[in-house]
Structures are given as structure tokens and as C-alpha cells.
């Protein structure tokens, strides 16, 4: 663990909120009384342990006479947490450690939904598929070397959530992900077989998006209750801005309406399997 710490934008917001509060209110307790809040709420916000809502921020601004535009910009920045692949590789546990941190977030979420248009989502990858994907010669990466075995093992460990009925795990992928071969075609066939197996698990909802109705997005995403994760070869961004998360939740709802599910999804997978 250790990748998901209080990051500079959140610290800057906390520092600025404390700075604008001090001239008018000698303590956080005084501000809490003025706003009718719990003192612990003000304390968590000033320590960077909790982000204020936009409504909370406006009340803080009205009480302190602070610059509205500056603080709202700081809040926007604080809602985005960047996890750099280079930084993660240098940190405790390296890149596998970042996967362990993500697994902890997934376990603490009721809804775990991963959509990928061109590749099988990580939560559904076999070890051979993940290894083939990570070792493609032409795959762009920000790193000179990657602990492939460590990342593969950590990714497989994340998949324990598929077997937890208390969670709702959505595995959504574009039709292209079924036919895009990474390495040996036999690896892809085994991967398609694995998708069929996990589709039978009570916690799993498998969705296959037909090519002719594909979502207007260039990249995949993962929704974890009130968090959005956007992953790329150079790292990932974690967004917790409620309006942004709500937009992607709506995109997932729309995907459900047009995607193949149940026996239709399995039929599509088997069709590609035969073609391979």
C-alpha cells in the first residue's frame, strides 16, 4: 500500500482554506460554530483528509471573504489524483504495489465496473493474456523495464472480487476486444473461454458492446462507487468530482441498454472463438 496518499493539490487546497480562515476566525472550532458544522468536519478539511463539497466551499468562502475563483480551481485540481507509473515503480511495492492499492479500493466498493473498448478488462484477464498484453513489442510505455510477473500476479489477485457475491462487478468490453489478438491466437481463445466461465459467477455482469453502436470514447474507464479511474500506459488518474463520476455512471447505464448480455453476449464470444 502507500500509493494513495494526500497529494499536492489536496494539500494546497487545505493550506489555502486554513489561510483564508485564520484572519476572521481564530480557530477551526470558531468557524464550525459560525457555519453550524461539526468541528471535526472543519478539522478534516483543513488537514486535507476530506474534500469539501462545492456547497461547503461556497459557505466557507462567504464566511471568510476568500477569492471564489481561486478556491474553486483548487477544488477542481484536488478532485484529480494522478498515480504516475514512474512514481509507482520507484515506490514501495513498485507497479505491483499500485495494483494492490487498486484492489483495496475495489474491495471497499459495492459497484466495480470496468469498460474497455479494445482490450479485455484487467479484472477478467487470464495470466497469459495479461502477460502478452504487457510485453507487446510496440506497446508504448513510460518505463524502461516493467516487473511483468509481479504486475500479472497482482492483477490476478484483484480478481478475487469476482467471487464475492456482496459486490456487483460489471465487465464491459467492445467487440474489438474479442478479436484483437495479443500474441498467440491460442492465448486469445483461452481468454474468450475464461470470459464465458466468469460470466456464470453471481457477482459478474458481462456486457459486449457491438461495433456498430460503440461508445464515443477513445479509452476505457473503471467506476468504483463514487470514484472514476482512467488508466493509461504512463499511469492512472482517479477522479472524485461528483458531476464527472455521474456522467460516466450515465454512460454505463446507456451502455447497458445497447450492449449484448447474458446468452447473447456468450453467443458473440463463441462466434469470435470459432473464427480464431
Describe this structure in words.
By secondary structure, the chain is α+β, with helices and mostly antiparallel strands. It has two domains: 8-78, Orthogonal Bundle (434 Repressor (Amino-terminal Domain)); 81-275, Endonuclease Chain A (Endonuclease, Chain A). Helices cover 51% and strands 15% of the residues. The protein is built from 13 helices and eight strands. The chain has helices spanning 8-21, 28-35, 39-46, 54-64, 68-78, 85-90, 94-107, 127-134, 148-158, 175-179, 185-198, 242-258, 262-275, and strands at residues 80-84, 111-116, 168-174, 204-209, 221-224, 227-232, 235-239, 260-261. The longest helix is centred in the last third of the chain and has 17 residues, at 242-258. It is elongated.
Briefly, what CATH class of the largest domain?
A: Alpha Beta
Pick out the low-confidence regions: 1-6
Alpha carbon gap, first and last residue: 40 Å
Strand sequence of the main sheet, in spatial order?
A: 1-7-6-5-2-3-4-8
**Overall number of domains:** 2
Gyration radius, in Å: 22 Å
The string of secondary-structure elements, in order, is HHHHHEHHEHHEHHEEEEHEH
Shape: elongated
What would you say the CATH architecture of the largest domain is?
A: 2-Layer Sandwich
At CATH level 3, the topology of the largest domain is: Endonuclease, Chain A
Count of alpha/pi helices: 13
Strand content: 5-15%
Structural class: alpha+beta
CATH superfamily heading of the largest domain: Endonuclease Chain A
Number of strands: 8
Rounded mean pLDDT is 87
The biggest sheet, with number of strands, parallel, antiparallel or mixed sense and barrel status, is: 8 strands, mixed
Percent of residues in helices: 40-55%
